[in-house]
Amino acid sequence: MNDTMIIYCDGHYVGKDDAKISVFNHGFLYGDGVFEGIRSYNNRVFRLKEHIDRIYNSANSILLDIGISRQEMIDIVVETVRRNKLKDAYIRLVVARGDGDLGLDPLKCPKPAIYCIAGSIVLYPEETYTQGLKVQTVSTRRNIPSALNPQIKSLNYLNNIMAKIEANRAGVLEAIMLTQEGYVCECTGDNLFLVKKGVLLTPPPYIGALQGITRNAVIELAQADGIDVREPLMTLYDVYTADECFLTGTAAELIPVIDADGRTIGNGTPGPVFKRLLEKFRGLTQVDGEAYSF
Q1: pLDDT band (50, 70, 90) for residue 293
Q2: Which residues does residue 271 pair with via DSSP β-bridges, in sequence order?
Q3: Mapping DSSP to helix (H, G, I), strand (E, B) and coil, where does residue 48 land?
Q4: Dihedral of CA 116/120/124/129: which sign?
Q5: Is 141 left (phi over 0), alpha (psi -120 to 50) or beta?
Q6: Which SS3 state, helix, strand or coil, does residue 236 take?
Q7: Which of 117-126, 160-169, 224-233, 275-284 is the least confident region?
């Protein structure tokens, strides 16, 4: 980690060694808060408005009043990246419930706390983008929307972490999570896409799949390219028999899957639809976003 990193820490821009939170912050004690992972490319914060809208929607869903306007939040994100002099960055924006007591009651937390970190992240080795990724289905099921709606990007990511632990133990970098009913939902940190007979398929959000910013951008790019995009309920059989499979996420961008649970996907190499959409997506990141300079 960069020793000169500047972090927005609840109203102040400070060095990383001075970026601290209270042990009474309910974001720390209970995972009570929301977050976004955001990328900047070539001095542009990619789809920042969409990320800001989503964090405010998440906060509203848990009755967390962020306390500043969306434009002020945009300014915080851009200024954090600018102060770190990063042309390309991974940005973590966090809004925690704030300081309270040791009880659960959020009413004891009068003021939320806002943090913004700009650095870098590498999820997958570079060769996986050209050679493909192996994934494993895990036993940890995705949270059911009626209990904790996965559209809320909360600080409590234990559901995903438990699945990630299973992936680690299986020796793979990513894992497929199913719904309680056994439908394919998403991966631990990425959305999932299949290609079958030229049609692009991805799980519907209502079963618990996050409406990822990258996911939505890929759908838009595919539709603009004349590709039929559908959101059906799918089982592992659909994954195993797909012509192509790839994952999408803010940090991962688009990454191909060539093996699922020991079954070869397609011909075992990244497919043409994936390659075309990756090229289009990377072109989009160079022109779409909130521009900044330093």
Answers
A1: confident
A2: none
A3: helix
A4: positive
A5: beta
A6: helix
A7: 117-126
Let me know if 65 is exposed, middle or buried by CB neighbors in 10 A (0-12, 13-18, 19+). exposed
Please, which pLDDT band fits residue 1 given cuts at 50, 70 and 90?
A: low
| Residue bearing tokens 């789809």 | 47
Token pair recorded at residue 63? 């009755």
- pTM equals 0.95
Contact at 8 Å (CB) between 175 and 135?
A: yes
What does each C-alpha distance from 250 to 9, 93, 189 come to in angstroms?
A: 23, 13, 9
Residue type, 194: L
The 10s digit of each residue's pLDDT in 95-109 is 999 999 999 999 999
First-to-final CA distance of the chain: 21
- Write down the residue that tokens 């900047």 correspond to: 40
Burial class (CB in 10 A: 0-12, 13-18, 19+), 99: buried
From 116, 91, 111, 89, select the one nearest 100 (Cα to Cα). 111
Q: Tell me how far apart the alpha carbons of residues 97 and 31 are, in angstroms, rounded to a whole number.
A: 9
* φ/ψ of residue 45, rounded to 5: -85, 110
Active site residues: 153
Can you tell me whether residue 263 is helix, strand or coil? strand
- Residue 266 and residue 239: Cα distance in Å, rounded? 10
Q: Are the C-beta atoms of 126 and 132 separated by less than 8 Å?
A: no
Q: Are strands 229-230 and 199-201 parallel, antiparallel or unpaired?
A: parallel
